Amino acid sequence: MVDTAARGWRDNSGIFSKQTVEERILSELNKRLGCHKNYLNYQSRLKWFKNKWNTYSELMRFSSGFGFNSSTKMFTATDEVWADYFKAHPKHNNKLRYGTFHDYEDLEIAIGNGVAVGKNSIGLGSTTDARTLGAEEGRDVHIDDLDYDLENDALISQPQSDQPFPSTSPLISPKSHEVPMQKVTQTKRNRSTYEESGVMERLNEISTSFKGIYSLLEKRERERKYTIWDAIKDTPGLDEDTQFKAVELLDNKGNKDVFLKMSLEERLSWIQHKTRG
């Protein structure tokens, strides 16, 4: 999906059409891995990715104080910002604060439409029509009934809600092969209603795409402002005197670059080693 997005194969609304998924993604995946994945499998995995991305983007949107360090693959923020976040999200744990997230930037491109910055989306030309609901797309994807759980890195069942009303669509009526005029009229109305809802869906997707672009620009600005002093302050277990000594040790670009690529534990060990004695 990341490679497909980088090649500009989204349609004009910023999403992957069913045709693009089947011809560009699934065909190559099945050929390389010797598997037989179909569009329903893609929808299930897409749901998984979207739930993970929603967890990440919810964190980034919570406060402008949050950032993401591309070197360490970690979310960054001051102690006060983290405290406010966990107060508002008591079910989230310190995995978000101290864990590494190597899939964040890939999901930002594939799900958050981050690759759209400075590029034009390229459609598939006359072979691509407006997105229609085929037989496979009309089926329920059971993974939609699950929520992503960050702590266990898994999808969990949602509480059961009321059963939906049974379908009244004449297209699935088994009573007769003859279709009365009233049902034909109703079918046309249903089709018109669906087309209108499809337009609204595309508008919502375009809005989401712009939000992804804005989020990416904000992230790059935060990373530009993330200094070596910020990295030292984010390292746990350092008193003020040790922090000042660490600044003196990191007096050249080479040392700074290496330090920023270290994990928090490696930074602490490096500083303790250099200041020992």
Question: How do the strands and helices of this protein lay out in sequence?
Answer:
Elements: H1 2-6, H2 18-33, H3 39-62, E1 67-69, E2 74-76, H4 79-88, H5 95-98, H6 104-110, H7 135-138, E3 146-149, E4 154-157, H8 181-225, H9 228-234, H10 240-249, H11 253-261, H12 264-275
Pfam families: At2g29880_C, Myb_DNA-bind_3
Biased composition (Polar residues): 157-171
InterPro entries: At2g29880-like, At2g29880-like_C, Myb/SANT-like_dom
Brief write-up:
With 277 residues, the chain is mainly alpha-helical. Helix content is 55%, strand content 5%.
Number of helices: 12
Compute the gyration radius: what is it? 25 Å
Number of strands: 4
User: Beta-strand percentage?
Assistant: 5-15%
Range of helix content: 55-70%
